[in-house]
Amino acid sequence: MSLVRTVPRDDAGSMTTEMSKPIVVGVDGSTDSGVALDWAAAEARLRGAPLHAVHGLWMPMAAVPFGGAAVLPPSDELRAYATDVLDATRRRVKDVAPGVEAETFLVLRPPAEALLEVGKDAALIVAGTRGLTGLGALVLGSVSARIAAHAPVPAVVVPPEGTDDGNRAGEIVVGVDGSEHADAALRFALTEAALRQARVLAVGAYHLRGRTTSPERQETEAVLAAALERARAATGATVPTTVRVEAGHAAEVIVEASATASLIVVGTRGRGEVRSMLLGSTSRGVLHQATRPVVVVRA
Fold first, then answer.
1. Ramachandran angles phi, psi of 37, nearest 5°
2. pTM of the model
3. Whole-angstrom Cα Rg for the chain
4. Which tens digit of pLDDT belongs to each residue from 123-149?
């Protein structure tokens, strides 16, 4: 990997704790990545964490006569554009989140790979839903999907209309089904709510198997109660928490419950879904439908 840190850092005597781990965000100069940057900067300020902004610069592979394929070196025009994006990123962070320590990285790799590499030890990796085509060469629709599926740390996808307008204390909605990934999502939601002084809404969904809803509803309520007990024991969080159980497809129930939420949290995949799947049907559905920032958490 070719990586250029465009702002120097003094690493002498540095110690990394969970709260001091950086927030990593992808930037490409698009409106969507600007929204994601603002969200990430506000989160970094809330946590007292550094912010690392990453621009992946990569030229398409070109055919070589009578040979294989080659990757073209970035043109001077693309390098100049990348430099402009990162300069503008630092100025924007100073405006929207004064006091946040921001570093920028120019990485000569495809954007998703660049984010995953820089963010492998981060607190969060953040991306917008879409990005530039053409000159910027970053299609964040595909980038955000890859980050959500492959990130080893919680991944946040920020839709253009889904910022919280500075209301970090808005309700956090989390999907719960008793799976290990949903348990990890619930622990994240409780911890984040304590940080924000927010409420948590734990949402469970069930499918009707007969004419009455009682058995399925009671089973889902029991699953949520047990999951909350495990998560509270693991985190020590005592934030106000309510439970909502509805019949229907899990993604639709979660999205409907989160219309005014500040954050939605889901696990990568749920109970009963194939282990080889990187993203389950619920997390994919929420990512496609949500109008609020979505955090995807892996166990």
1. -60, -45
2. 0.86
3. 20
4. 999 999 875 443 343 333 678 889 999
